[in-house]
Amino acid sequence: MLAAYADQRFLRYDKDIRWPEHEAERVLVEGIVHQPGETLIPSFLRRGYGTVKVHIYRTKPHSFVSGSELAQKLATEYGAHTAKVVRLFGPETLRGKGARAQLKEFQDPCPSPAGKVLPFENLPEPAPATLGSFAEAMAADGSSLLHGQMQTGSVGPVLVAVRNDCVAGAIALMEIRPDAVGAAQLMHQYFEVLPE
Fold first, then answer.
1. What kind and span of H or E run contains 195?
2. Residue 43 CA to chain centroid, in angstroms?
3. Per-residue pLDDT tens for 143-167?
């Protein structure tokens, strides 16, 4: 991901077309700090007089100080006028004081998911025939529209999760289409899973 970011080999996702053609902010890969209990990811925003932001993902209590020091050091190094620290608050933080983020802790080795996840066209029988009942059960979330588009061939690849030979989940619009100004854009994806 970082190699693709550095080379600008990525598709922008901007459904409201608010962002410029080229990113004004980039990750400062050489400034990343990663150690047990603490990850600091700095970025540099070229807009205006320049801003260095350090995103803190931590469990150590002194991480805010480490992040602040790194932000100040990199702001001086890159000639940025502003240095900021962005951190995640814990569950003890009052509502309205920030944004919530869900992070996944990966195990080594990562356990395999139950069931299969495959492109719809590669599903073994009898799973493909169960897509209609899945779409009906998830109609309130838009699956019936997706099912209709799949039947007419007007939607790109669809990945589905199969459990007990039945479709149990789907993620769709796994495709690239031109945006309003003709730039290649990864489409917004919809993910649905049966509640049971």
1. none
2. 17
3. 777 778 888 877 778 888 888 888 8
Residues 6+ apart with CB under 8 A from 34: 40
Distance, CA of 161 to CA of 192 (rounded, Å) = 10
Query: What single-letter amino acid sits at 162?
Result: V
Contacts of residues 126-133 at CB distance under 8 Å and 24 or more positions apart, as own/partner, are 126/165, 127/160, 127/162, 127/165, 127/166, 127/167, 130/165, 130/166, 130/167, 131/160, 131/167, 131/170, 133/166, 133/167
Q: Is residue 35 helix, strand or coil?
A: strand
Report the alpha-carbon distance of residue 65 to residue 70 in Å, rounded: 9
- pTM exceeding the 0.70 threshold for the entire prediction: no
What is the end-to-end Cα distance of the chain in Å, rounded?
A: 34
Q: Single out the residue of 171, 170, 173, 161 nearest to residue 117, CA to CA.
A: 161
Please state, in angstroms and rounded to a whole number, the distance separating the CA atoms of residues 136 and 130.
10
136 contact partners, CB below 8 Å, separation of at least 6: 143, 144
Residue 194, both tokens: 């049966």
What string of DSSP letters covers 115-181? SEEEEGGGPPTTGGGGHHHHHHHTGGGTHHHHHHHHHHT-S--EEEEEETTEEEEEEE--SEEE-TT
